[in-house]
């Protein structure tokens, strides 16, 4: 699918993985919003790119000093390429031909091919959805803003285990980097 007809816009679906959804008391509101965003993007001819946290067997990418990931090393295979929890959640599963990019760090750019893929597609506008707001969403937005991408953040298609953190980032931090709107607002903008 070409994004040339969509002014260089790409929808990023980040870390909406089976295992990750277990960190939310009720993942259904997030999954419903992401599903709506994905369906709307597909209907508008906007490319959807999925990102998943995924390590090789034995975790050669994880340094024991990495506070966030070092605990994963003793998890018995959690977030490895073969672990079932690493897959995109079935509620928003990619269609055949849609790109799923593994990443080895928190940001969507760090330890992945995202930047190369976006450049190859002449993408300049990223629509952001993901889990967790204080993790991949925050880190990807900050890096994307520094790389001069136009950003639209779908507030209800992002979630965090701490709702207060999610709200603070959406209201106080993210507006400095991009437009923060709901999935419904974004969907309506696609039909104008």
Can you describe what's shown?
By secondary structure, this protein is α/β, with parallel strands linked by helices. It is 32% helix and 20% strand. It has a six-stranded parallel β-sheet with strand order 3-2-1-4-5-6, with helices on both faces. Helix 5 links the parallel strand 5 and strand 6.
**Broad shape:** globular
Count every helix, treating DSSP H or I runs of 4 or more residues as helices.
Answer: 6
What separation lies between the terminal Cα atoms? Answer: 22 Å
* Unreliable runs: 1-5
- Determine the fraction of residues in helical runs and give it as a percent range: 25-40%
The average pLDDT value, as a whole number, equals 93
Features:
single chain; 192 residues; alpha/beta; six-stranded parallel β-sheet; 6 helices; globular; disordered N terminus
In brief:
The protein has 192 residues and is α/β, with parallel strands linked by helices. It has helices spanning 18-21, 28-44, 114-120, 133-146, 163-173, 183-190, and strands at 9-14, 47-53, 99-103, 125-131, 150-159, 179-181. It has a six-stranded parallel sheet, with helices on both faces.
SSE blueprint:
Layout: E1 9-14, H1 18-21, H2 28-44, E2 47-53, E3 99-103, H3 114-120, E4 125-131, H4 133-146, E5 150-159, H5 163-173, E6 179-181, H6 183-190
Parallel strand pairs: 1-2, 1-4, 2-3, 4-5, 5-6
Helix pairs in contact: 2-6
